[in-house]
Please model this.
Amino acid sequence: MHKKILVFLLFVFIPLGLFAGEYDLNVIDTPKAAAAYKGDMKFGFSIYDGGGILTSAILAISDYAFLGVYFDADHVIGSETPRLNQPGVIARFLVSDGSTSLPPIAIGYSYFMTGNMGKVDGSIVNGFYVVASQGFYLLGMEQGFSYGFRYPVIPLEYSDPENLTVFLGTDVQVSPEFSLKGEIENIHFARERWPENYYNFGANFNIVDLISISLDFKYTPLTKRMIRNLTIGYFTQF
Model:
C-alpha cells in the first residue's frame, strides 16, 4: 500500500518545489518578491522528516501573479500508516517589480513550512505574507536578500496576532549549476518565543537544464534537532 501511494505521487507530481537561480521563487521555506513570467510552470517534490512528502504545482497567470496547489502526506515512506493531509492553495501577486523607487514587493498566500516540525496539531500552517527583496552583488553576480512577515490563517485556532512572524533570507548563486541559501523564519516579536526561530540553510544543484535538486537543513533551539529536506524541482512553460 505504501509503495502504491509513493509511486502515484511520483508519477503525478515529479515536477515541483524550489528552483535554483532565476527559477527559484522561494529561498527555502520563505518567499521571495518574484512571480515568474506568464505561462511559466513550476513543480516540486519534497521529502521531509518522518517520511512525509509535499508536492506543489504553480502556474504563472501573468508576469505579476501565479496560482498553485499543494498536497501533503505524512509517513508515505516507512512502516507507519500514511496519512493524507488537507491540500491547500498557493498564490502570489507582485505589487512592485523594483522598476520605481520601491524595491520588489509581493503579497501572497501559502503554507509556511515544509515538514512536521512546522505543523500545529498535525496541520500545516497556512496564511498571508508580505515580502520585499533587495539585490546585492557578490561573486560578480547579483544576489538576492528577502525579508517580510507572515500572518497565519489555518489552523483557525492558531490565527492570532501573537503568531505573526518575521522572516529573512538570502540565496547566493555561485555558478549556474550551484547556489547556496540561508534563512531565519518563525521570528516572533516576543523575546521569550525566540527559541521557536528556525535557522535553515541549504544548497541547490542544477543536474540538467531546468531540473534541480535541493538539500536543506533546518534547526530550531526549541527541539534542538537538525532535520533534512530533499526537494526535486522542475521548470517548464505552458
